[in-house]
Design brief:
The chain is α/β, with parallel strands linked by helices and 273 residues long. The chain is 30% helix and 16% strand. The strands form 2 sheets. It has a 7-stranded mixed β-sheet with strand order 1-3-2-6-7-8-9, with helices on both faces. The chain has a two-stranded antiparallel ribbon with strand order 4-5. Strand 2, helix 1 and strand 3 form a beta-alpha-beta unit. 47% of the residues are buried.
Length: 273
């Protein structure tokens, strides 16, 4: 039976890492002046034929091991899940307390200033994790909470073909999933895509699944709804949005079953072993 996981923002989450390292990862965010180092990366191996690889990005102050625990029990056999851990940094929303975080943030306001170098660095890290996958394997990104921001930003970079800093983005992403999250500076990023006919065409063909609980206490439901609305019009025409009553900053069986069914369809896993 699939377990139901609640996602808590606790300052002691890093203690669960232990010594269970599934993938040794020493990649540095080399485009950042501080050269922040990522933590350990964990991998859930496919239980059947390997047809797709999905990089799954964790919430603020969590780690790849918490993602591993959630994903290893999903009833989906043909996906390899790669679960990286963000660097530790001071986070303004936690009064500067060091946390595992993909970027620094003050709040969830649409116009909140975000260090775009951090987003670029995280997107490159996702691309690096894909770099050793076989060419015939479909690639996807997903995440929870703050991890959604990186998953959606990586998808936007793949669609546009470049990072915000103008460097080419080598990723080729076939699907993206976001659970109870948002994309910072979403209007700015979508305006960049609209400026390229090729990028618009790629956006219109990329499947997205965005889910959010209406009782989310941490990432406001309204914040995710705004991101979803801006994504859909006029770009991401293959966007699927799901909302859940009485669901807070957590997952439940209904939502994870939706994720499994959606990935099975959009990564062409139907009829696999």
């Amino acid at each position: 039976m699939l377990r139901v996981y609640s996602i808590f923002i606790g300052l002691s989450m890093m203690s669960i890492l232990g010594n269970s390292e599934f993938m040794n990862n020493t990649n540095l965010y080399s485009i950042l002046p501080a050269r922040l180092e990522c933590g350990r990366t964990f991998v859930v191996r496919p239980k059947g034929k390997h047809l797709a690889t999905v990089v799954w990005l964790h919430e603020l102050n969590q780690n790849g091991f918490s993602s591993y625990h959630l994903l290893e029990e999903l009833p989906i056999r043909n996906i390899k899940w790669i679960c990286p851990t963000a660097p530790r940094r001071g986070v303004s929303i936690h009064n500067g307390f060091p946390s595992t975080a993909w970027f620094n943030m003050l709040n969830f306001a649409e116009d909140a200033r975000i260090d775009m170098d951090c987003l670029d660095a995280a997107a490159i890290h996702v691309s690096n994790l894909f770099s050793t996958e076989p060419t015939e394997i479909k690639l996807g990104v997903g995440g929870f909470g703050m991890g959604v921001a990186i998953a959606l930003y990586s998808a936007a970079c793949a669609v546009e073909g470049k990072l915000t800093n103008g460097r080419p983005y080598p990723g080729n992403i076939s699907a993206a999933v976001g659970l109870t999250g948002w994309l910072p500076m979403v209007r700015f990023l979508m305006d960049k895509i609209i400026g390229s006919q090729e990028a618009v065409a790629r956006a219109q063909s990329l499947p997205l699944l965005l889910c959010h609980g209406k009782d989310d206490f941490f990432v406001p439901y309204e914040r995710g709804a705004i991101s979803s609305e801006i994504f859909r019009s006029p770009l991401f025409q293959k966007l699927t949005s799901r909302t859940y009553d009485r669901l807070g900053h957590a997952t439940n069986t209904e939502e994870m079953n939706e994720v499994c069914n959606w990935l099975t369809t959009n990564l062409a896993l139907d009829g696999s072993d």
